Structure formats: structure tokens, C-alpha cells
């Protein structure tokens, strides 16, 4: 019965040089990395794919290269494996193949390539060890697909979890809001009586109660907006006119120490959105900018048109389509956001501010609003230099804008 090549090694006649036995031409164009070593463990030949995985092409004519052309090998969990203790050396001793072994090839520049290795001993007809052949499959593309799949599953789980939270939250907050309304009305009725009493102590306590009620009411409104489906009363909006109309309100929000500048493109396209929600989003960004500039600074609100594709806008939302967009950008020269916080700023209830100052829902709702109207959102920030938030809207009348679902109101005049 013939020997099993994988079970007992590949048997070859020992009167032919090793390279010719396997045929260098055979491995030259294989899509997997293939290399051979002799019985002393010295590398004798390899194909271009092996060199590409290693990140270098060893010159075998200068000095012996032991076991492999890889700079360093690591186990699947990242532990360094000295070459003398590697599976390659073990095959030379045991004469037994090793199959489907996951390893990490570390290149000289520090980059890493995950591979699936199969190592087969090469035996002469008398059973003597002549060396081994190793094939390594590049798993980088597979690893990227696995990461994408895991991210998708995590995102789906998070969406399902937030959906359930929102269902419960909507009912609870609705009841909560009703009670707050009663409380606010009672405070309003008490206010005149307290003012008539002339008691400064009661007036101070009333002010504290009203401030606390206002904060809780705002939190309840944020939670309701987060929990329910957003209204779809859409209209065509001129971003320049929107910002000009809000300029006094923006000035009131920022206060004296902050200079507000409008940089509006004369050719800015129209967009389609819910005006109230868009105004709320802009005010939210203005407040964030104000709090990032406690000692004053400059706040710039700008508009411009741009063309987006996947090459110049790689960090896009799932609903991204290349095309024409109009941008509203809010830029400050304040404290900036730390890199470790920047990746979490859109997470619900995440905030770097004091608990009584922020609900952690503002940026989450802005992102949801922009996603709902097929837009995109980008944030850049550097500590000590400031932050820029860009809202990208499909230009009104474009295919991506027409795809937004909802009832559209008459055009603004």
C-alpha cells in the first residue's frame, strides 16, 4: 500500500537535488507562500508569495537562512516563538507533518500577517529526512472579513438592545414628563405668592427648584426624542438663511467672551431636513463649543458644497452614497477632545462633562438625525487647538436626497 504523504511525509528519490525534486516552476505562481528547507533546516527555495508574506526576499547565496525567511514568528495569541522551538524545527525531529496551524508572521518593520501553515516532511525512499516543505496561506483578508462580521454582529446587538430600551423608556418618560408639567405649573403658581411675601430665602429656594425642574425637563425631552421615531416633517432649507436667522440666538448662547463668525458660501446648495431638529442640533453644537472655550475664543459657522466618494471620505455611515453634499460646519478653538474620548462621543449617555451639566445624548441625537436624512457626520479635534464638527447633507434634489422618506412641507420663500 502506498504511503500517505500527509501521514508519513512526502517520499522522494534521493538522487536528485532537492529543488529539482519538487520543481521550482511548480511553486513559482502558487497563490500561497511555499518554501523548502533541507535536513539541516536551511532555507533552499521559496516562491514570490512567501517573500511577500515575509516582507523581504532573503538572498540564499550569501549565508544560510535557518528554517524560514520570516523575521519573527508568533503564536496565534501573539507570543514570540524562537525559531529553534518553532513547529518547523519540530518537523525535522519528529518527521511528522503539522497541518492547519495558525501563526502570525512578524515582519522586520513590525507589521504582522496572520497565516495558516501546513508543514510536510520530505523523506527519501529509505525514510531518511531530507527536509520539509511549508505552505502558508495569507489570512489578512479573512481576518478583515471576520472583524467586519464581528463589528456587524455587535452593532446589530447594540441596536436591538437600544430598541428595547427605547420602548420601555418612551412610556416611562412620558409619565415622568406629565408629572414634571404638574410640578412646573405648581411652581409658577407659588412664584407670585413667594414674590408677594418678600422673603429672599423663599425666592432663592424657588429659583433652585425651578432650575432643577428645567434641567430634569430637558433631560426628559432628550430621552423622549431619543426613544421615539423622529418626525418626518421635512422641508427644503437654505443653510445660509438658516444660520443667518439663528445668529442672534447663537450670540445669546455663546455670550460676550466668544466671537462668532459666519463664513457662508454664496453658492451653498439647499438641503432637506426637519427645521426644528436641525436648529436644535446646531444649538447643541454651539453649546458644546461654548463650554470648550471657558475663557473665550472664536466660533465659526460655515457652509460650503463638496463632492464625496469613498476615497476622500472613508469613515462614512452605512447609508453613504457618493455624490454632491452641502456642509454646515461648526468650528471652535477651544480645549479640544482627547483621542480616547473622541471615539466614544456618539455613544448614548457618554459624556466628559459633569453629570448635572450634560445628559450624554446631544451628539447621539445629532448623529441619528444626520443618519436619518442620509447625511454624514465628521468630527476632528486636537487637544488645546479646538474641534470641528461637519454635518454633510445630500444636496436638495439629488437622488440621495429624494430617497429620504417623510412628508415634505412647502418650500421656504
From TrEMBL:
Histidine kinase domain residues: 171-397
Protein EC: 2.7.13.3
Catalytic EC class: transferase
Residues covered by the PAC domain: 99-151
Catalyzed reactions per annotation: ATP + protein L-histidine = ADP + protein N-phospho-L-histidine
GO molecular function, one term: phosphorelay sensor kinase activity
SUPFAM superfamilies reported in the protein's UniProt record: ATPase domain of HSP90 chaperone/DNA topoisomerase II/histidine kinase, Homodimeric domain of signal transducing histidine kinase, PYP-like sensor domain (PAS domain)
Name this protein carries in UniProt: histidine kinase
Protein species of origin: Phytopseudomonas punonensis
